Amino acid sequence: MRNVHDPSVQASRGLSQLFGLDPRIAFLMFIVDMMLFGGEVLTFGLLIPVAMVAGAVLGFITYRAQRRWFGDDHDAALIKGAIVGLLTAIPTPLPAVVYVPSGILGLIHMARSRLDGRNMIDNKSRIE
């Protein structure tokens, strides 16, 4: 079994795995943040407790999605979920600089994973 705390294993994960979010989560983060910010503006901050609960729920959803869909280990998914939850709970709109690059890195990671999976299947069929 490989030690995930070994620096060589961390380096082999790549930039897209390290910093990427699943694109569906990046889109959900954008939608939830826009809905919450609009409500906070109209209610003059009375919905901040709702934003905190929504941030916690979105953080949990991010953790689960990163584990199952994106292939993150427990620690990486937990950190990404906590960051998403915290950023969502802050009563300001998130700039596109936050979620767009993470979503793009996630798309690149998913495309590479699918391409590698197809290449492995093609290689297996050629060997047999």
Question: Which helices and strands, and how do they pair?
Answer:
Blueprint: H1 7-12, H2 14-19, H3 23-42, H4 48-70, H5 74-89, H6 96-127
Describe, in plain words, how this protein is organized in 3D.
By secondary structure, this protein is mostly helical. The chain has one domain. Helices cover 80% and strands 0% of the residues. It contains six helices and no strands. Helix 3 packs antiparallel against helix 4 (48-70). The two termini are 28 Å apart.
How many domains? The number is 1
Distance between the termini: 28 Å
The percent of residues in helical segments reads: over 70%
Order of helices and strands: HHHHHH
- % residues in beta strands: under 5%
Return the average pLDDT rounded to an integer. Answer: 79
Q: Helix/strand/pairing class, anyone?
A: mainly alpha
Overall shape: elongated
The strand count comes to 0
Unreliable runs: 120-126
* Helix count from the secondary structure assignment: 6
User: For the CA atoms, what is the radius of gyration?
Assistant: 18 Å
- Main sheet summary: none
Quick structural overview:
The protein is mostly helical and 128 residues long. The chain contains 6 helices and no strands.
